[in-house]
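Entry 14. Structure prediction run on the chain below.
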Amino acid sequence: MILYEYPFNERIRTYLRLEHLFRRLGELVERPSPTDHHFAITTIFEIMDVGARADLKTDVLKDLEKQKHVLNGYRGNPVISEVALDEVTGQLEACFAAVNNLPGKIGHSLTENDWLMSIRSRVGIPGGTCEFDLPAYYAWQFLPSAARQLDLQRWVAPLVPLAESIRVLLTLLRDSGAAQKVVAPSGQFQQTLPQGRTFHLLRLRIDPALGLIPEISGNRLMVSVRLMRHESDDRLHPSTGDSMFELTLCS
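Output returned:
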């Protein structure tokens, strides 16, 4: 099954983008190739660009505190495991402390690394990291892979609290939804959202064997899914058949 996720607000959109970047970074750091490590560095810069948002750190801290408050409301409920509750609230408290202790904006400490910033200033230029532009960076790529990985892990370290906080928050959000099987008649599906609840994320799973691509749109009142096919002319064309997929609304 292919999973598609659609955020209903800018905050969750930012969290999903960061999660995507952190996953990519984790894979690239573990590989030995200098090319992979080059793209690991460019991914660090992308995370810094997203983290430069003035309200990101505040949003994360507020969401961590909010989730802790919600979970503490379940204490004393006989159907809720106190051990599991303590474990999750402990994760939230640890994430809150780690993010709160970060100086300035996310990734701010990396901006004081002149060597990294010299690469950052050139990486947006096509071919701008050639050996005649950045000889020190070119030499770094000839170091043993283990040495390069140690450097990357050192540069990633200031970003780890954000990565862990995003992981915990998105896990809790995704766990809040219940999956349902739905049918899109003639490739079209619409659903009015129940009033009184604020949904933050839509998750859609569809069988890849169907060869369908969902185009999702939504707001606080309604969600809409249009199923498309990628045809031989390299364009998307609407599907006209009835198709089934799995839909989850997370609040």
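The chain has two domains: 9-171, 177-250.
Filed with the rest of this week's runs.
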